[in-house]
């Protein structure tokens, strides 16, 4: 009985925590008012949207996801420097942009979404399309003299880790 009440009040505890943190960050304060209002949002939003999440995704390895987040953050920092150098010091004729097709080993929609978001968040690349059967991702790279190397790096650096986390 208590578990059922807890599940109704907190259907997505991690989302609740995330909403409280994001609310405090948006308000640029960790004052009691921001925390209380963030907690209210963190309780109401997941409770109202719970019926639309019938298959709640689970992350079996939260520490693995944390490692993945740090890898992505590091890659974003490095890619910002690389893209700035490309823009500042390469002429348009020297840039070799390319469309890269990435065959996916991932099958879970959540993992594919995180992969596509990771690619788009990293400066210099953007996820453009997912094939209708979900087996291939189309990515545009700002500078890719070797498109196969871009594909291999995405598969080994991101997709492999997401496959370990989700499948």
Could you characterize the architecture of this molecule?
The protein has six helices and three strands; from the N terminus they run ααααβαββα. It has helices at 2-9, 13-27, 32-49, 62-89, 109-121, 147-166, and strands at residues 98-103, 125-130, 136-141. A hairpin with a 5-residue loop joins β2 (125-130) and β3. The radius of gyration is 20 Å and the shape is globular. Belongs to the CPA3 antiporters (TC 2.A.63) subunit E family. The chain crosses the membrane at residues 62-88.
Notable features of this structure?
mainly alpha, 167 residues, transmembrane helix, 6 helices, 61% helix
Could you name the ranges where pLDDT drops below 50 across 5 or more consecutive residues? none
Widest sheet: strand order?
1-3-2
Structural class from helices and strands? mainly alpha
What is the gyration radius calculated from CA atoms? 20 Å
How would you sum up the major sheet?
3 strands, antiparallel
Q: Please give the number of β-strands.
A: 3
Mean of all residue-level pLDDT scores = 87
Please work out how many helical segments DSSP would assign.
Answer: 6
Share of helical residues: 55-70%
Quaternary form:
single chain
Tell me the β content: 5-15%
Terminal Cα separation, in Å?
32 Å
**Principal-axes shape call:** globular
Indicate how many domains the architecture comprises: 2
Subcellular location: Cell membrane
Transmembrane segments: 62-88
InterPro entries: Cation_antiport_E
Main location: membrane
